[in-house]
Amino acid sequence: MTIEATVPGLRERKRLATRHAIQLAVLNLATERGLDNVTVDEISRIADVSPRTFFNYFASKEEALIGDGPSLPQSDSQQQFIDAGPDADVLAGLGELIATASEEASEHRDLAARRRGLLKNHPELFAIRMANMRAFEDEVTALVSRRLVADGVSADLDDAELAQKARLITLVAFAAMKHAWACWADAGGSDPLSTRLRQSFIEVRALFGQ
Asked: Which fold has domain 67-207?
């Protein structure tokens, strides 16, 4: 199953560019001075935006440093995944869904590299980012559960067994995501994260002979 990604328009590209500039500014300043010594006014000046614009994108400098957590693509893409049918591989479909979502995100390798180092020095912010990941895990698990119900799998399972199966599929998908992100962040090339995600899901499926 291939889920078509929406090409962002000019307004969306400008929004993503502004978001990137703000995040890059806070990461650079925090690396140089420490986060406690950085102000929103300074971040805004470096990013060439007003403080008001900053707060249109982020509630705080900490939120800007943590960055965007993963998300699922728009609802019609999710419905495509749910309606793919029992003959379509669930893990492959989930991988395509996550890869498509990454194409719509604003993450860049330069941001990822700076953020990874800073979060190690700010465990309280790392904990918030991990909480965001757990929320995303719950979101994906709920979507997988809906897919299993649509495929008729739930007829042979009680609610607890269905939840466990959905969670297992999600955790396998997250292992592929973690592998993809680490390879992408460490790579010196210019391939997008979505390319690495698709490759990691192919490699995981190959481990199971799929």
From this structure: Tetracycline Repressor; domain 2 (1.10.357)
- pLDDT per residue over 26-50, tens digit each? 999 999 999 999 999 999 999 999 9
Query: What's this model's pTM, rounded to 2 decimal places?
Result: 0.78
Sign of the dihedral through C-alpha 101, 104, 108, 111: negative
* CB-based contact 178:199 (threshold 8 Å): no
Phi/psi for 52 (5° steps) reads -65, -40
User: Which sequence spans correspond to the domains of the chain?
Assistant: 67-207
